[in-house]
Amino acid sequence: MNLSLYFKKFFSSNQASGIILIFCVLISLLIANSSAGEGFQRFLDKEVGTQLFHLTYPVSIWINDGLMAVFFLLVGLEIKRELVEGELSSFKNASLPIFAAVGGMLVPAVIYSIFNSGTEYGSGWGIPMATDIAFSLAIVSMLGKKVPNSIKIFLAALAIVDDLGAILVIAIFYTEQIHWTYLLLSFGTAALLFVLNFLKVTRIIFYIIPGLFLWYFLHHSGIHATIAGVLLAFSIPTNESNVEISPLEKLEHQLHFPVSFLIMPIFALTNTNIAFSNEMVAGATSTLGLGIICGLVLGKLLGINLFSLIAIKLKISSLPQNSNWTHMIGVGLLAGIGFTMSIFIALLSFKDEIAIQDEAKFAILIASFLAAVTGFLILSMAGKNNEAEEEN
Q1: Are 134 and 267 within 8 A, CB to CB?
Q2: DSSP states of 49-65 as a string?
Q3: How many CB atoms lie within 10 A of CB 392?
Q4: Which sign, positive or negative, has the C-alpha torsion 131, 132, 134, 136?
Q5: Could you tell me if 33 and 275 are in contact, meaning their C-beta atoms sit under 8 angstroms apart?
Q6: Average pLDDT in the 363-389 region?
Q7: DSSP letter at 47?
Q8: What value does the mean pLDDT take over residues 34-62?
Q9: Average pLDDT estimate for 15-25
Q10: By the number of CB atoms within 10 A of the CB, which of 99, 103, 176, 330 ranks highest?
Q11: Is the dihedral of CA 151, 75, 231, 106 positive or negative?
Q12: pLDDT digits (tens, 9 = 90+) for 115-143
């Protein structure tokens, strides 16, 4: 096969972004545990930007709060499109990710607290509540057509609600100070964006410019700025027509390649540089490690499926189209990939306690690995069963 055609086929496949992301994770771990680790960390800690408007931040902050806001913009656009004309357009389908996300936050926090209430690790109850949306979506994308599109949309919506919940938890319980002036400016800017939508303004540039201000105000308010991407996405106009391409669909199409093959790999490369130590390994069997691992792997699985079952039995919600409970189990496991958001909460939970932070990081890494592998295998098995049923 011609080499250019091979690369074109690879980059157009569903699995490509997931494969590249996992490759970047392995490279990052190798760098962190080699002689280049300290130099790479210094690069991530290097402050860049301009003093004008107080926009000087470490490289890692620009990636996690800046580039990832673009990722959240893309996911938000996909969710809004599905709400208007797709899998989430009915209340029963749209409500299920909300119930699932609530269960997926509460049950892990309870499990963690059972292990650690009253100990020096008690403040870390928020660690297993988070789902890493980038990694969980990357894993499910590797399964391609084995997984119904409705399940991918359900996982994306669940992870968005989960992340919003995690941001609220951070803002209420882990943020030392909220800057209310910037927060009010954020509300005002968000309101302006929705007024533009109401007035049927269709030029995307008139949304992007206020969107940049929204990111700036949110970042300075003390709240995680990636939420700006979701708010911006929900303000951009779309339609129910299959004839005319909406501004939302145009922007969604333009963002797919740079997000999948540039932003997400950079995110993976810079957020998995974890240097292993003997203390970290020993911490995996402590109450801290067990609380995190059981919270993320078992807590997410039980919480998401229990609350989903209750919502469906009460006839409030319904299963995603063409899916079954095996798919839901797989999604519940993939949601246990806490990773970067969990690590972020761990750093806030145990400030200035480096040894505990390292133990938490290792436990999060183990839990995320277990959740990713088991979730992938179960969803893959569900896909094979569906193919066998179709053949019969």
Answers
A1: yes
A2: EETGGGEEEEHHHIIII
A3: 5
A4: negative
A5: yes
A6: 86
A7: E
A8: 91
A9: 82
A10: 330
A11: positive
A12: 999 999 999 999 999 898 888 988 888 88
Phi and psi at 383, nearest 5°, equal -65, -40
DSSP per residue, 139-159: HHHTTGGGS-HHHHHHHHHHH
Phi, psi of 21 (to 5 degrees): -65, -45
Q: 166-201: per-residue pLDDT in tens?
A: 878 887 787 777 899 999 999 999 999 999 999 999
Of 368, 270, 239, whose CA–CA distance to 67 is shortest?
270
| CB contact at 8 A, 300 and 371 | yes
Q: CA angle, 283 as apex, 112 and 120 as ends, to 5°?
A: 55
To the nearest 10°, report the CA torsion of 215, 217, 222, 224.
-10
Mean pLDDT of the chain: 88
| pTM for this predicted structure | 0.84
CA proximity to 360, closest of 341, 346, 345:
346
| CB-based burial label for 27 (10 Å; 0-12, 13-18, 19+) | middle
Tokens representing 293? 């691992």
Only one residue has tokens 């958001």, namely 341
**Token digits of residue 187:** 């509300």
Burial class, 298, CB count within 10 angstroms (exposed 0-12 / middle 13-18 / buried 19+): buried
The closest of 236, 237, 221, 222 to 188, measured between CA atoms, is 221
Task: Compute the distance between CA of residue 157 and CA of residue 235 in angstroms, rounded to an integer.
Answer: 17
Q: Are 147 and 20 in contact (CB under 8 A)?
A: no
DSSP string, 302-361: HHHHHHHHHHHHTTS--PPTT--HHHHHHHHHHTT--HHHHHHHHHHHTTT-HHHHHHHH
What string of DSSP letters covers 81-100?
HHHHHSTT-SHHHHHHHHHH
- Helices 133-141 and 339-349: crossing angle in degrees, nearest 10, is 160
Would you say residue 13 has pLDDT above 70? Answer: no
Length of the chain: 392
> Which candidate, 283, 259, 317, places its Cα nearest to that of 133?
259
Continuous segment of H or E residues that includes residue 21: helix 16-32
Element (H, E) at 238: none
Whether the pLDDT of residue 9 is over 60: the answer is no
